[in-house]
Design brief:
Strands 1-9-8-5-4-2-3 form a seven-stranded mixed beta sheet, with helices on both faces. About 40% of the residues lie in helices and about 15% in strands. The chain is of the alpha/beta class and about 350 residues long. Bound molecules: pyridoxal-5'-phosphate. Pyridoxal-5'-phosphate (PLP) binds next to helix 3 and helix 4.
Length: about 350
């Protein structure tokens, strides 16, 4: 069975060597050396500040918690995202208000955001969908005009650069996921990125039960600490992630070459200066075709993924978001990872073409 993704992993002996130290130091978590080093490396790489946490969902919860929004507040969010984005809003006791997406970029539409603003709106939570940067300037203008915070779900954005800057630098806060299925991973993991030192310091306290550096409790925190085994995995993956992205680029381009205009694609931002090839999303003409392709590929031992599906407005609200519903019902992610062999890329494309036929 070929899966939709395959986690990259460092050389086993290197990992063994790295974690051996932990049997001597017995410092397994709580701001260990590896965690501190990983935070430093990521801050340098992306030219912003960073707090690493145990998963991306906790990073979202902490990001929302930073602002102490009043009870009953509304947060404008895209319906075309992974469940965690919206669930974080609901867990925090706020109301998600959905703004539909642009059908070409798959990102939240700035015009739709403006239409959803009420006197209860406190924040916008856009997602850079599949690593495609949102229109960050327009979103920032709306936020400033209406005095809203911007929390980006940048779960897919490791190494995504927009006009030469990491997309993690935009908004008040960006949240990353380092889950095993993402381009760069720490098995489970996530991070909060921001250029705002005050927010970063607060996130650091919230990660560790609200303790400040003098071990006084100054916030209502939680436990979102990453352990040293995972940080060690992250440090070693950091050494091989550039190569992994290069290899993914080849696979991505091969698919595009073989599929041509048999399927539609996400329109990537023209201002992207580096992309990470995290996924291989393709769009079919209708849901039935998408589902046929899904089943037929599965029958041939290829696992694909309907992602994001369903459109979350249909689960968490009674709003309608036609663009998001349409893309959700027609999208499929093909297997993509660095070491995927040509033979499999070719097989997948042959099966798709057989079902779709030439356009
Ligand atoms: C993966 C993902 C998350 C959640 O991250 P975890 O690390 O799995 O908790 C949140 N949002 C989006 C868009 C994701 O793809």
């Amino acid at each position: 069975m070929i899966n939709v993704t395959r986690s990259m992993m460092p050389d086993f002996e290197k990992y063994q060597e790295k974690i051996k130290k932990l049997w001597e130091t017995r410092w397994l978590t709580n701001n260990g050396d590896y965690l501190v080093e990983l935070e430093r490396r990521l801050s340098e790489r992306f030219d912003t500040q960073c707090v690493i946490v145990s998963n991306g969902t906790l990073a979202l919860l902490i990001a929302i918690e930073l602002f102490d929004f009043p009870k009953g507040s509304e947060i404008i969010v895209t319906p075309f995202t992974f469940a965690a984005t919206v669930e974080a809003i609901i867990w925090q006791g706020y109301k998600p208000v959905f703004a539909d997406i642009d059908p070409e970029t798959f990102n939240i539409s700035p015009e739709e955001i403006e239409k959803r603003i009420t006197e209860k709106t406190v924040a916008i939570m856009p997602v850079h969908v599949f690593g495609n940067p949102c229109n960050v300037e327009e979103i920032q203008d709306i936020a400033e005009k209406h005095n809203l915070r911007v929390i980006y779900d940048a779960a897919h954005c490791f190494d995504v650069f927009y006009e030469g800057k990491s997309v993690y630098k935009f908004g008040d806060i960006s949240v990353a996921s380092f889950h095993a299925t993402k381009v760069f991973h720490t098995i489970e993991g996530g991070a909060i990125f921001s250029d705002n030192s005050e927010l970063i310091e607060k996130a650091r306290r919230l990660r560790n039960f609200g303790f400040n550096q003098k071990v006084e409790i100054v916030d209502v925190g939680i436990n979102a600490k990453m352990n040293e085994f995972q940080a060690a995995m992250g440090l070693l993956n950091l050494e091989i992630v550039d190569e992994e992205i290069e290899k993914r680029k080849r696979v991505f381009e091969k698919y595009r070459e073989l599929l041509g205009d048999v399927v539609d694609y996400q329109k990537l931002s023209e201002r992207l200066t580096k992309y990470n090839y995290i996924y291989m999303p393709v769009l079919f003409a209708d849901e039935k075709t998408r589902d046929n392709v899904f089943e037929e590929l599965r029958a041939n031992s290829y696992n694909t993924r309907k992602y994001f599906y369903p459109s979350l407005n249909s689960i968490f609200s009674r709003q309608s978001c036609p663009n998001s519903e349409s893309v959700s019902s027609r999208i499929l992610h093909l297997p993509l990872y660095g070491d995927l062999e040509d033979e499999h890329i070719e097989n997948v494309c042959i099966i798709i073409k057989r079902i779709v036929g030439g356009k």
